[in-house]
# Entry
Amino acid sequence: MHPGLRKMVRETRMDKSSLIYPMFIVEGENIKQEISAMPGQYRYSADRMGEKLESLLRAGVSSVLFFGIPKHKDAMGSMAYAQDGVVQRAFERAKKEFPGMYLIGDVCMCEYTSHGHCGVLCKEGVDNDRTLEYLARTAVSQVQAGADMVAPSDMMDGRVAAIRRTLDAEGFLHTPIMAYSAKFASSFYGPFREAAKSAPSFGDRKSYQMDYHNRREAVKEALLDAAEGADIVMVKPAMAYGDLIREIKEAVRLPAAAYSVSGEYAMVKGASAAGYIEEAPVVCEMAACAYRAGADIYISYFAEELAGYIERGVIG
# Structure
């Protein structure tokens, strides 16, 4: 088939505007620190993050998802919702210096708690209902600082409703929520936990993240988030969950995001460095498969590279 015709009849298409880049913001000054588990990815202090934001904008990627890494952590994750928290200061600065950027805040507590779990504890477990108040406070503090959208990733039951109710009460009626609706207790998250310094100090997160064996439960969770007011639903990870991206997209009828997580990134980088694969074609294929499954939004550490591949017509 002629290459022009092959592209003309392509069923799956993507656009730079659908890409989101996840970015780690660390407390401090003059910091650009490579993440050992994710070669080519960095933790940035707010005064250095502009280097990456400028590069993203030049490539055509205008959306970023901020994760904050504070110096101080405590049992209540208080820096998650502090007005002068690391991510709040980053939002304030980014909004002033990069008004063309669409800023999204990850709403969770694992990076901020001394125990590394995604909520406040009751004895040896996470107190779901008590955590909702702090998640809602975190979301409001991020929006007040300049976030355009919030993305709760904690997987507490009822958190979308709690955040929506609190945002509305504070006057942020039009701030959208992108819910991590089907976030699985996955082995693909290891490099992220090194990057965000968020590994749990005991146990694991299987009591609130989803069992990867379960299909119907994933659809149910997404439907619940939609009923509570989510504007976008998400499946995380992306690569091994195309069946659920498709099923959730068809069941929920909301825009769907897929998060290509740190383990996916690290595997591609590692295999490419060893000469086992060619990086660019694999990155393109992974992205195309997520969109083919039904993703409208693709969250990826390769977002800038993908924008370049789209520009050059390699994919798109």
Summary: The mean pLDDT is 94.
